[in-house]
Design a protein that fits this description.
Length: about 280
């Protein structure tokens, strides 16, 4: 299955993404629109996957890649997106790029603005107001949690799936991150932060968790030296304190090991069960 999809992805790339449908297995097909612009910046592109039989009640999964807020590409999560599509054949999927941070561009607020821009574009395109499931890894996990808890003014986020995302930027374990100085200096535009709050508190999703926060599912690696396991404990505590429904799991490996087939299969099975659980509520 994985080999088949990887070959299909390669063929779509060679053909300039002219493929209009993709079969993800079990006779499940999606209509594909690649590199759809949702803004004027070259990085503001998204891939849209529509079920063969669209339904205006369908939730939308928005997939947000990692890369330390200043690198990465949606293509990193294409195969993982396909694997999820097989499990959720009635849902719309969007795999998005976003404007990357640099020494001259802060990650926040532009990256959360891009999440909102994607949502707005999809509502206009699909002509209904869907609920969104934000799923991101690493920096994408952070952005998913931050948007859902701080920036979602319209309460459009139904749930968050956070894979190895940093949620407390003040965590001593996270301060061992090789690029922590970049986080301190270039993650957050100081202009958007009130004087009564520190930059690192402002940028920490746990700081914004409240009783109205959406359900969250999180995965952290036992041997992750980039985003340590302590982040899971901090996040679980904040969600429990606010009586927010959550599930969290550990996997054997480092920051990138969630992509290994045994771990990704485990993650997908937990995502399926998590969505069943919150749909019952």
């Amino acid at each position: 299955m994985k080999k088949h999809l990887l070959i299909l992805i390669a063929l779509m790339t060679l053909l300039g993404c002219q493929q209009k449908t993709v079969n993800v297995g079990n006779n499940i097909s999606f209509k594909v629109e690649n590199n759809v612009s949702y803004g004027k910046n070259p990085n503001q592109k998204m891939d849209i996957y529509l079920p063969e039989k669209p339904n205006k009640k369908n939730d939308i999964f928005i997939i947000i890649h990692g890369g330390g807020w200043r690198s990465g590409n949606k293509s990193q999560l294409t195969f993982f997106t396909y694997s999820l599509m097989e499990k959720f054949p009635e849902n719309v999927f969007v795999n998005m790029n976003y404007r990357l941070a640099s020494k001259t561009r802060f990650a926040l607020p532009v990256q959360t603005e891009d999440i909102e821009n994607v949502m707005d574009s999809l509502e206009k395109k699909l002509k209904y107001k869907p609920r969104f499931i934000l799923l991101g890894n690493s920096a994408g996990g952070h952005l998913s949690m931050f948007y859902a808890n701080k920036s979602d003014k319209n309460k459009s986020v139904k749930a968050v799936i956070n894979i190895v995302g940093p949620v407390d930027l003040n965590d001593p374990g996270f301060k061992n991150y090789d690029e922590y100085s970049f986080v301190e200096k270039h993650l957050i535009d100081p202009k958007i932060v009130d004087k009564n709050i520190s930059l690192m508190d402002f940028g920490s999703p746990v700081h914004w968790i409240n009783k109205n926060s959406p359900p969250a599912l999180s995965f952290y690696g036992l041997h992750d030296t980039v985003v340590p396991l302590s982040q899971k404990k901090i996040l679980d505590s904040a969600l429990a304190k606010n009586s927010v429904y959550y599930e969290s799991y550990e996997f054997n490996g480092n920051h990138l090991s969630w992509e290994k087939e045994t771990n990704s299969t485990f993650l997908i099975s937990k995502i399926v069960q998590f969505m069943k659980n919150i749909n019952k509520k």
